[in-house]
Structures are given as C-alpha cells and as structure tokens.
Design goal:
By secondary structure, the protein is of the alpha/beta class. The chain is built from twelve helices and eight strands. α5 crosses α11, α9 packs across α11 (about 285-310) and α9 (about 245-265) crosses α12. The radius of gyration is 21 Å and the shape is globular.
C-alpha cells in the first residue's frame, strides 16, 4: 500500500467475451461509484460483437486480446496490468453495488493478506424474470452457508491482495471451460491461504433466464462439476451450489420417480409410504432454502420457486451428472 495514501487502491478486473447485452449496465454501475481510489480494467477476450465500442464509452482501461482464450487468461492479463493493492474480480454481467468497495476494504483491513475474500449475488437479479430471481436467491443462499470455511470463492465476486495473487500464479489457463474459480480456490487453500465469505460483499447479476436458459445452465455446470469432483474424489462434499441440499433434492426426485413406477406396478402402499417419507426428508433438509425464497420475494414466489426446485430443477441436474460421469470416464480413458 502507498504510505502517502492510506486508502488502498482497488483494481476492478472484468473479463468480457461478447457481453454487449450487459456491458453498458455493468460499466455504468462501476464507473459511477462514489469512491476515490479504484481503477477499472476490462479485458476483452476476442469479442466479435460491439463490446469494444461499448467499453470505449466509459472511463476504464481496455485491454484487447486477439483471440478468445478464456476467462482465466483474461483475468490474469488484467491482474498483470493492474496497479491496485487489492484485486477485485467480477464479471461483465454483474452490477457492482454502491457499498461494494467499502465492504471489500473493511474486510481486507481486519484480515491478513493471506485471507481471500469472496462475495455472492444479491437476492434480486438485474432483470425481472422469474428464473433469474430463482437463480439469484439459490446462489446467494448456497454461497453464504459457510462463511468461515467455504469450499470455493466465485469469480463473480472475489477480492485478493495483489501480492498474494502474484504468488499464486493466478487462474489456471489450461482448465475446464468453467469452474476455474473453484480450481483457483482449492489451489489457494493447498498453499495455506484462508478463504472466507463476506455476505455484505454483493454484486447484482443480470441473468435474463428463461426456463431453457435455467436448464442449460444447470446441466452444463453439473456436468463439469461432477467431472471435476470425481477427479478430486470429493463428489459428496457440501460445496456452494453443489450443496448437500441440492444433492438430497435430486436423489429424492429420482427415487420418487422409481416409487411412482412401483405404484404403477400396484404396490400402492409401499409407493405412497416411500413418497411421503422422501418428501418429508427433502422438505426438512431444504427448509432454509425455502425460507430464503420467502425472505427475498414473499409467499407466491416461494410457492413457484419451491415447485420448480422440487419438480423440475432435478431434471437438468440429473442429466448433467450423467454427462459429467461420461466426460470423466472418457477423459480418464484418453489419459
């Protein structure tokens, strides 16, 4: 930290690839912050939309990569060009909140440089679609369950001492298409660094999710999460959005399908008893998530979100799990 300036400079690093639909909102929010000590670095990862033109409308530093190389390299390049004492990574579809930088400084000030601070999404998304609201609450709830010992810190809201980042060698650039922040978090922990979640450290995410968008997101993330977890032998861990609650929900859903099959086979009593027991267990395990739905948006939203979570969301998660197991086996076979 510059001794002449007691306020640490925060470098806000935003990777972007074809993010024109949300960039103007993202950069509008971050460049309008009432803060006297921050810089904004946007690394465009070979976009072929009008992202670059939009970025140039705002008072930030633009770094253009010639071809798409992935979010990891974009973040690393941005960090390598930064001047800040603290690096704050977020995404081009996220809106930094008015108090985000002050929360980062406060949290970093009471911890040593080996502590990496994570945040999460606000419970209200940056758009007004139901599936976006579901996703915002679900992620906020999942990522703030374990404040002192989270399994990972998400790349959409991550603050780290600049020197600590350099020592870590940054995000892995030869990793899976997603989950680079999970790998980074696990590597930091192996290096002896501490991960914490600060629940006041928030960004608002613009999802613009339809039902199919929600399904595609769940399938894709589950696929790579399962493959990664099988490789690291921690498939059953309580890890952020891959929580014990979600895993129980998916297991109960598919066992319930089997119970319904039994019902068709005329074992009515056994099937109904099994369904009742599974439903009670699932509702009990997930009761805090349902409460989070209610606290965020009230009774009607809770009903809709709970029914979607219980009766539809397990479909893409289950399909993603099968795809992840297949991907893992194929990868191991090639090795």
């Amino acid at each position: 930290m510059d001794t002449k300036n007691p306020i640490p400079l925060i470098s806000i690093i935003i990777p972007n690839f074809n993010g024109a639909s949300t960039l103007r909102q993202c950069l509008g929010a971050v460049t309008s912050l009432k803060d006297e000590c921050f810089e904004v670095i946007v690394v465009d990862d070979g976009s072929h939309d009008n992202s670059v033109e939009i970025i140039k409308e705002f008072p930030c530093r633009l770094i253009q990569l010639e071809q798409q190389s992935g979010a990891s390299r974009a973040r690393n390049v941005g960090a390598g060009s930064s001047h800040g004492d603290i690096l704050f990574f977020t995404d081009a579809d996220c809106l930094v909140q008015a108090n985000t930088l002050s929360v980062i400084r406060q949290t970093m000030a009471v911890n040593n440089p080996n502590v990496i601070v994570g945040g999460t999404y606000t419970t209200q998304p940056g758009d007004n679609r139901f599936f976006s609201a579901f996703q915002s609450v679900f992620i906020n709830f999942s990522e703030t369950k374990q404040l002192k010992s989270p399994d990972y810190l998400a790349g959409h809201a991550l603050a780290i001492d600049a020197n600590t980042f350099r020592q870590s060698e940054g995000f892995a650039q030869d990793f899976l298409p997603i989950l680079e922040d999970v790998e980074f978090s696990h590597r930091l922990r192996r290096m002896g660094r501490q991960l914490i979640i600060e629940p006041r450290f928030l960004v608002q995410h613009i999802f613009n999710y339809s039902l199919m968008d929600s399904f595609r997101n769940a399938l894709c993330k589950t696929k790579y999460w399962v493959a990664y977890s099988l490789n690291h032998r921690d498939l059953l861990s309580d890890s952020g959005t891959a929580s014990h609650e979600l895993k129980m929900n998916v297991v109960c859903f598919y066992i319930s399908i089997l119970s319904l099959y039994m019902l068709l086979g005329l074992d009515v009593g056994g099937a109904l008893f099994g369904l009742a027991m599974l439903t009670m267990i699932n509702l009990t395990v997930n009761r805090k998530l349902f409460r989070a739905f209610y606290d965020a948006n009230g009774s009607l939203f809770t009903l809709r979100a709970s029914l979607y979570y219980l009766l539809a969301y397990p479909l893409p998660v289950g399909a993603g799990a099968v795809a992840g197991i297949t991907y893992f086996i194929r990868t191991k076979t090639k090795d």
